[in-house]
Automatic annotation (TrEMBL):
Residues 2-133 form the Response regulatory domain. Coiled coil: none annotated. This is Glycosyl transferase family 2. SMART domains: REC (SM00448).
């Protein structure tokens, strides 16, 4: 049985494609409306799984015939193409993070057989697929029940100077194998080119990448170029960076992603301090909750702590280009420069509403 997947997020396509192939289905995929419709006509699938909000990306050879052209809800146009223009009964499953009741109602009214909201477990998707077109007669079994298709995709920059073998811990490998909506990009600022074959041993597909440079760059410049590199891909809703020694664990990074994805913040800063006597730009930190830290971060950002506190950050993709378009002036004032740039971008009156500073750990 044949399944066509249409989604603009490559991580979703790769994850779902591999999962369904492992279950015995023949799968093809497209990342925009126009290619999806063209592939439907050619592939003649038994089931279509489509997102709602996708780019149209119509090429010159594609003639769009529907009268109701809805760019932001192009997944609905795919249903119209199948039901109205082709007058075919091929089942369509909508798989989307769009929870708007009017959109769900439109999709079902147009003839969608199912509407599944992200995030959702992969085994739930397989049950829905079997309900629509049946189970493939195969000996293959997929036992990865706890894996999810997530609502948003996240890009993570990891600056790297050391050998990759020393960084590939069990925690790292576990994170890669279980967090299918994360793309990890190692930015190499060492003298030697970093091989990708080591990473490919642990992860197939494009959920891990290495960005090498043709000249030596400082760590802050490597992070800046890495952030801009992922921003251009447009599939990531959030992009952030970790310490090069991976000393801040991935669960902590996910905590920051959860904050930014469930709030109006555009930037979440995570500070990990080494002791209860640590200072935050010269100010005692142990007595302050997050809201107060925000205020002191703004007021005392020109001061420096005598202790070196590690920090990680997550940004909404919408502001990455503006914050990282220019080179940073000083390596040892990286976090301060980011703070100043976000303040200039949002303005003093809106900074506290758009930037969250999260205290990660008090030892």
């Amino acid at each position: 049985m044949k399944i066509l997947i249409i989604d603009d997020q490559e991580l979703v396509l790769l994850t779902l494609e591999k999962y369904l192939i492992d279950l015995g289905y023949l799968v093809k995929k497209a990342n925009n409306m126009a290619d999806g419709i063209a592939m439907y006509d050619e592939f003649q699938p038994d089931l279509v799984i489509t997102d709602v909000d996708m780019p149209v990306v119509a090429n010159s050879s594609f003639e769009f015939k529907s009268l109701d052209y809805i760019k932001k809800k192009s997944g609905l146009e795919i249903i119209k193409h199948i039901r109205v223009l082709k007058k075919e009964t091929t089942p369509v499953m909508v798989l989307s993070g769009n929870r708007q009741l009017d959109v769900i109602s439109q999709a079902l009214s147009l003839g969608a057989a199912d509407y599944v909201i992200k995030p959702v477990r992969l085994d739930i998707i397989s049950m829905r697929v079997e309900n629509l077109i049946g189970k493939v007669d195969t000996d293959k079994k997929n036992t990865k029940k706890e894996r999810y298709i997530h609502e948003s995709c996240v890009g993570v920059i990891i600056p790297c100077y050391y050998s990759l073998e020393t960084m590939l811990s069990e925690e790292f490998i576990k994170f890669v194998n279980t967090n299918l909506n994360y793309h990890l990009c190692f930015v190499n600022y060492s003298y030697e080119e970093m091989p990708t074959k080591i990473l490919n041993k642990f992860c197939k597909g494009k959920r891990i990448s290495v960005l090498n440079f043709d000249h030596v760059v400082h760590k802050t410049e490597a992070i800046r170029l890495g952030m801009l590199h992922l921003e251009k891909e447009h599939q990531f809703e959030f992009i952030g960076f970790l310490n090069e020694d991976l000393s801040v664990n991935f669960d902590t990074f996910k905590e920051l992603v959860n904050i930014i994805s469930t709030s109006n913040y555009k930037n979440v800063v995570g500070l990990e301090v080494g002791s209860s006597n640590s200072t935050f730009w010269g100010f005692p930190i142990k007595h302050f909750v997050n809201k107060k830290i925000n205020g002191f971060y703004k007021k005392f950002s020109e001061k420096h702590s005598k202790e070196k506190n590690r920090f990680i950050e997550v940004f909404d993709n919408d502001i990455v280009k503006d914050i990282f378009k220019n080179k940073f002036l000083l390596e040892n004032k990286f976090e301060e420069e980011i703070s100043n740039r976000t303040k200039c971008f949002f303005g003093d009156d809106k900074w506290n509403d758009r930037v969250c500073v999260k205290l990660l750990k008090l030892a």
